[in-house]
Description:
This protein has strands spanning 2-10, 13-22, 35-40, 45-50, 57-62, 73-79, 83-86, 95-100, 107-111, 124-127. By secondary structure, it is mainly beta.
Amino acid sequence: MKFRSLVIVSAGLCLSVAAHAESTEPTSTPATPTLTLDKNAMTGNVVLVWTATTGPYSVVRGTSPSFEETPPQIISAGLGATTFSDPVLTDGIGYFYSIEDANALTQVFGASANGGLPGDEITLTGIGFASVLADNEVFVAANRQW
Length: 146
């Protein structure tokens, strides 16, 4: 099951929440994941709590709902817990959050360089990669802009 939730936070207030779960050929009906959002004004944290799916979890934060206008940030990866506190409550920026579980589709958010020559090393940032580096395959096309 893939679990993805988007949450808009502006000055610590939840403006909207959307969540969905997808599964291919389920053997039983999967539970609908939930996400709650709260704020801790004392610490300045936005607090995310979600129901368990298949961990580990990554928390991704962006400034657009599509995560395409500006590169999103992976603010935590490899979480075993289903809660996360983000200290951004008072920064005056609206954020969208995505909680990605172990079944997340591979998504590349950025690269350390826009190009290179054969043998150059370029680091890709994203989610959904295999935990063993050798299990990942990356195909590079010409003229790709990050």
